[in-house]
Sequence to fold (264 residues):
Amino acid sequence: MKRMGAIFRRLWSKARKAQNNDIYAVTAAGSRIYVNPSDERGKKLLEARGNFTPPALRLWQELLCSSDWTCVLDVGANYGEMLANGGLPARATIVAIEPNREILPYLKKTLHGIGGIKLYEIAVSDREGVSQLLITKDWSGTVRLVEGEGDVTVKTMTLEQIVRAECPDIDAAKVILKIDVEGYEAKALSGLMPLLDRFRDFAAFIEVAHLSPADKDWISGHFAIEAFDMAKGVLVSVPNLNWEENSGLYPYDAVIRRRSVAAH
Fold:
């Protein structure tokens, strides 16, 4: 009887997991975003039809339309909402990058529904190797790499490695990134610097809310910065990432471009 009870519990657990994996939000573009309903971030996506940060999505989609991008990388894809909400270039190479094993089953289903997207189950850093990932189960958006002891060990790669593998014609590449890695954005970007001046075009949409002052200074020193003016609904050039809270600029994300573009 004990054995039968154990078998039943395992089957029930698998059934619940399968059922949870089939919970999704339907976006305005008609795509499904599969989420874990026990994750508060997943619940928010369900409530908002896959878009609970409209300014961020608007900014990302306008950036997608700003050039004929050949390589699109979503670094820290989470459930894949930035990819599932549409606007992706039809002929571009699309890459999703996500190391969180708690999220991956849902992300894979989301990406399968979109089609044509390659998934890297790794973390992006400034070096190839391994690192520690801190997993927060109540809000998947705060999963992050940590120095020292984390919950799991994950493989790390640099953006240079990934771009070389997926977009080998570097000098013809027009590369756009979305980077949301909870304060690790500067290290992720530093791993792309050897290629940056070779691209025909480059832009990145990055989360800035969790950056340290030192990382804000590093990014401001290496890139041209644009912020979203919420009243005017346009991107505006700013000298750095240190704008005031009452400035009217969207506080959570920014766009960065190269300071100077080499002739091609």
